Amino acid sequence: MWGTYGHDGVAVCTRYELLYDALNGLHDDAHLGRVQVWHEPSDGPDSTGWEFITTKELKYAPEREVRAIITSYDPLGSGDRHVDLNNDPHPRPLTYHPRNPWVPDSKRRRVDLKKLITGVVISPVGQNDAVQEIELWLQNKGFPISPKRSELMSPNAPTLAELQEYPALLQ
User: Fold this and answer.
1) pTM for the whole structure
2) In this structure, is residue 151 part of a structural domain?
3) What is the 3-state secondary structure (H, E, C) of the chain?
4) 103 inside domain
5) Structural domain range at position 148
6) What is the domain count for the chain?
7) Could you report the average pLDDT of every consecutive run of 10 residues in the chain (171 residues)?
């Protein structure tokens, strides 16, 4: 998975029940489940949108992916959703915008990440300064966890420089 999706990235860890509880506290309908794989093209998704977002080809089975889908039924719900920091809706616009300006209000839902995130794992070829930077970020944000380097790290693992020079190693 590191080679396919994040050879120099991080993995954020949680548990299914923690994600379920976080989604269950939202006012929107939330669906959580493992993505299904199909073995033959005839078993693949039909014309419904729901099947397209809940199934994948067999080659992706090792990912064991879980997807969370939040459904908002308000077709006019955009920047005027009037939802406060506690996810409570209000009939009139709030006088403040506590959310980050780069995320549209209609797409933003608040969850307590300190309760949700159980671990952060650094790629086996991640730089040492990345580990320190992520550890500092977690401390500054008050997370009760420290990042760990992937257990796949060994003296036999290629370095980041080797991976950059020979990208075929990631295949």
Assistant:
1) 0.63
2) yes
3) CHHHHCCCCEEEECCHHHHHHHHHCCCCEEEEEECEEECCHHHCCCCCHHHHHHEEEHHHHHHCCEEEEEECCCCCCCCCCCECCCCCECCCCCCCCCCCCCCCHHHCCCCCHHHHCCEEEECCCCCHHHHHHHHHHHHHCCCCCCCEECCCCCCCCCCHHHHHHCHHHHC
4) no
5) 1-25+111-171
6) 1
7) 76 92 85 84 62 84 88 54 73 65 66 91 81 90 89 70 71 56
